[in-house]
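## retry 2 of 3
previous attempt timed out at serialization; input unchanged, resubmitting
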Amino acid sequence: MVAREIRAVPHPRLRLSPQAVGMAALLLTVSVWAAFALSARALSASTLLPADAALLRFGVPLVVLAPALWRRRHALAAVRPGPAAKIVCGAGVPFFLAAMFGGSLTSAAFVGAIVPGMVPLFVSALMVARGRGLPRGTQSTGLVLIAVGVVALVSRYAVPFDTDVMLGSGTLLVASGLWALYTVGLREVDLDPVGSIGLLCLPSFVIIALLALIGVLPTGMAHAAAGDVLLFLVVQGLGVGLCAGLLYAFAIRRLGAERASVVGSLSPVAVVLLAIPLLGERPTPAVLVGVPLITAGVVLANRKPRRATAADGADTTSAGTPARSGEASARAGEASPPAAAPPASATGPSPRALPSPRTASDSRPAVAKVPTDA
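## retry succeeded, writing output
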């Protein structure tokens, strides 16, 4: 009887607030972004080759999402070639190989700071090239801090000139520029996060498989250690390729793009801290100065200007233009370095408030909400 009475007593259920759930998703996303940067550095010490890591990065999401992608086949086929090329080049094989090669010559801190950190500056440059005007206010301050942080990061290796580090840093800048192209391309397609993953991964997997088959990119998957294969399958395939985009899109819906981007910008700091026990890296004075500057710059570049919306009080993106409900957060999941991280990414690679359609009266460029890491 006592046992029945105990079982009859209702047990309070642990209920988490939407904000707590969103924060948990965001912290997992930041961990994945950090893992992308760490794996870019660890690849050179593993038994896998870059082509092997790329096959896992783009192949695993295709296998997991195959039924969902089949249902979206008509939407994928309707994507225009121009935006599709931006997405495939910006976060596909060129980006992935550039991030991996740059990481092999530098450090995890460089990958985690340069690749995602420079994206707002490159996106702003693309917008200026399109005649959208110059950024102002906190956005321009943030872009300046990002540039100063990158200079502080690499200046130590300029005199005396370190060929490997400078070449690796330049390659990471190329990877960041490609990710900015991907960020802009995402805004031009009408796909949800799952469809965006398919649009990126399917052509990228076909390209890397063909390059491996004809011998342009060597592969050592058959002789690789099982532990290395499992590690990159989880980190690159499931983590960067699949989870980062979906988790970040979910976090934005729960927390809002501005709060999510601020927390996400802590990814370079997480990379530096994790690289100490996992890779044996010790942060240099240049890293201790450059990474905080880049992080602060990304936070400021992603801040949403306080502008009154006289007409209808509509919410605005970081560029101050009306945002279509749910659109920025839906696409946000894919613009995060991996991701692929990096990449992007990944990244992963900027599931934040991406540049939204411009109004005729607004001449300022859209600065993408760019979380730090791909």
